[in-house]
Amino acid sequence: MPDPAPAVFNRDLPTGPRIVMVANPGDDYRMVNRLAAVEGPGRLIVRPTPGGRVSDLALDILTATGRSPSTLLADHIPTSDAWAQAAAQVTVDQTRHIVIDRAHRLPGDALELLAELGRRARATVWLIWPTTEDDKYVPAPLRAFRAAGYRFHAIDFRAFMRELPPPPRVLTNGLRADAKTPWAEGTGPALPMQDFPVFLAHCRDKLPGNTFTAVRAVYDREVHLADQWLTRRGLASHHTPSGPRHTRAFAARLTFYLRDHRIGPAPDQAHALARLRGVQTALFFRGYLLRRQYETLGAGPTTRLLSQLTFRVCDKLRAAATIEDAAATAVSIHLSHGPTGLGLITCGNTAPDGSTIRLPVAGSPYATEETRFLTVPWKWRSHRPLELSALDVLHLESDEPILLPEHAAPLVATHLAYRRQQGATDSDPLFVHPDSPGLKSPEPGLREAVVRTCYRIHLNPAWLHRSHCRHGDENQRDAQQAGWMHHRGLDLTPLSDDVRSRL
């Protein structure tokens, strides 16, 4: 390949995306080792299927991002949709280098789509191109990438090793101490299970002195933070009026506080239990009893406090589900609730990085239940009547947004990017019906998708069994009691006026 060619093709192009054609004479085996070395965050190594079609390249790209090939084939994703999903995933992953091995075997149409994919992600596209005697293969990628505004460069294997070095290796230690963690992360002590009035006394008897001091510090800090939160919620003293509706609304806000900020993201079981006892103490002096009936949870009740949406589960979701199914399942697992109400979430109420989701509050949180409704789109023909009681989706409704774990946010962000590529605006829903978007509610289909995805990753949530199971959660009667607190043995009860007067 002559050296002056790059200057000819770049003469009238402004600075923009770059395509680098790497000459690999004779298909040198050293290239295989080099590609394995340069793979890492922000770098996507794609190994196309030999003799594949345009649709196969899209599936190869999704496989390179971490999707399971078997589930991709089982889902029968259309070609256009597969390319849209690939573009969304590459964009959210902040991929800056897309390396295509043995690119000379790709069809011309695939190269044009690959050029568009790299342009959207603002990534450098590296084409590993074995040198051949027949030059008819060379102009095709140049035309496709030049039309997309790329600048063309041709280098050899040695230059490729210099321009794309292996990423730095980061060594992590799972037992590294944190300033906010009084003991090594993940190695918390086994704490006694006694209730909050005698919790510290039993800790003092059963734990070593330095360990008890650390537990007491976590407990005292949690009481202080819970007091501040309760004061902001308007519960300045135990004389705050209460009632069934007020308690129900306050329990929903308390769920957000415990799930998203305090107990759910706790680093280990000891932190979760110590924080819970601190919150229980603060609530008791404000006139509320937060009971925990851990006897109903079976073996290992302390482990049930932590979020089920772990880093490992998110990796499984990314590999085993489509972009939409992975996002819906992640939100459902985080809420410990089925997808009821997810169809009301709009793209504008979802953070671009997927970290938060907000659903507008329907009226005052302390208004009469019968007068509080969330209006659904009139085109949703599956809803009769065309309004949902706010209690049906109270696991979503709050004046504070839902805060997802850091490792789960990319799943929602990828689906949001996918919807934006479909032309969705801020007012359009985040989840839509696959066949009749805007005309039917997506929630029945989302429920089946979440059940199917949980089955694929071997997760059996008790709150999402089939309707014929006696432990199934969501029918018209028990939807109000299902949720994060219910499946952790927690319930909120206001104290009587006589007990309040003695506090």
Characteristic key phrases:
two-stranded antiparallel ribbon; alpha/beta; 503 residues; 11 strands; 17 helices
Characterise the protein shown here.
With 503 residues, the chain is an alpha/beta fold. It has 17 helices and eleven strands. It has helices at 5-9, 30-38, 54-64, 69-75, 79-92, 108-121, 139-147, 157-163, 199-206, 209-232, 244-262, 269-284, 311-320, 323-335, 409-421, 443-456, 497-502; strands at residues 18-23, 43-46, 97-100, 124-129, 151-155, 288-292, 356-357, 373-375, 387-389, 402-403, 490-494. Strands 2-3-4-1-5 form a five-stranded parallel β-sheet, with helices on both faces. Helix 6 (108-121) links the parallel strand 3 and strand 4 (124-129). Helix 5 packs parallel to helix 6 (108-121), helix 5 (79-92) packs across helix 15 (409-421) and helix 6 (108-121) runs parallel beside helix 7. The longest helix has 24 residues, at 209-232. The protein is elongated and about 85 Å long.
Straight-line distance between termini: 87 Å
What structural class do helix, strand and pairing data support?
alpha/beta
The string of secondary-structure elements, in order, is HEHEHHHEHEHEHHHHHEHHEEEEHHEH
Oligomeric state, counting identical vs distinct chains = single chain
